[in-house]
Amino acid sequence: MISFKQLEGLIEILRNPSIATNDLLVYAITEIGNYYHHTNDSTSSKLLAMIVRDASILQCIRTEAYISLLTVVGMPISAFPPNIALFRLDTDAQWELVDRICGQGG
Question: Which structural domain, as residue segments, surrounds residue 34?
Fold first, then answer.
């Protein structure tokens, strides 16, 4: 279990992804997804959705953020990509969901 201070640091990385290495960004994305699993937390889901939308971030990292986003909002397993190797973020993501979450306060 991560501490509150660690959680704050991970959220800061999601707020400012450019401050982190790619490995650290992926770690933050994964940990936030695990911590807020099925909580529908508006702050973490918005930060993840914004990473998914950020074309300056590597697509593999954006895909990781998308998976964590689905986890946080509590999507059923059927909503997850059945084969991540074949998943294409640009065409396969549920962009209505991502855009709706990007528009949330938080």
Answer: 4-102
When divided into structural domains, the chain yields a total of 1
For residues 65 and 69, give the distance between their C-alpha atoms in angstroms, rounded to a whole number. 6
Task: Give, in order, the Cα–Cα distances in Å from 27 to each of 21, 30, 63, 71, 90.
Answer: 10, 5, 13, 15, 22
CB atoms closer than 10 angstroms to residue 48: 31
In this structure, are residues 105 and 91 in contact, taking their beta carbons and an 8 Å threshold?
Answer: no
pLDDT tens string 32-81? 999 999 999 999 999 999 999 999 999 999 999 999 999 999 999 888 88
The SS3 assignment for 18 reads helix
